[in-house]
Design brief:
about 110 residues; mainly alpha; elongated
């Protein structure tokens, strides 16, 4: 698959705008620390162009790179507020397995056919 995926260029503005705002916040953190693009890119172990893409809100930029940038800024805990789990999962409710399903972690014979 080519790097310039048409699916990313066709994203609606409802997804592009928040990415651009996030990029601007990352840039603000970098500028506040008085780090140049080159210094920040070295800290992130990426190229300056990749950092520019992250700060521009390009949708093809790695989520791992985003997490690394947040960690560098001491903001990694903010990732926990992204797409919070539904209330049932947040309450840590356990789901019971029926005895007919067999023990957890065991692959049934009908699941092996692929």
């Amino acid at each position: 698959m080519p790097r310039n995926s048409h699916s990313l260029s066709a994203l609606p503005s409802q997804t592009i705008d928040p990415l651009e705002r996030l990029g601007l916040r990352l840039r603000a953190h970098r500028v506040h620390r008085e780090w140049t693009i080159t210094e920040m890119a070295e800290r992130l172990l990426c190229s300056p162009n990749t950092l520019r893409a992250l700060e521009s809100g390009k949708p093809g930029t790695s989520i791992g790179l985003l997490a690394h940038a947040l960690w560098l800024f001491g903001e990694i805990d903010s990732m926990d507020s992204v797409a919070p789990a539904p209330a049932a999962l947040a309450a840590k409710r356990r789901v019971r397995r029926s005895a007919a399903e067999g023990p957890a972690g065991k692959i049934a014979e009908d699941e092996r056919d692929f």
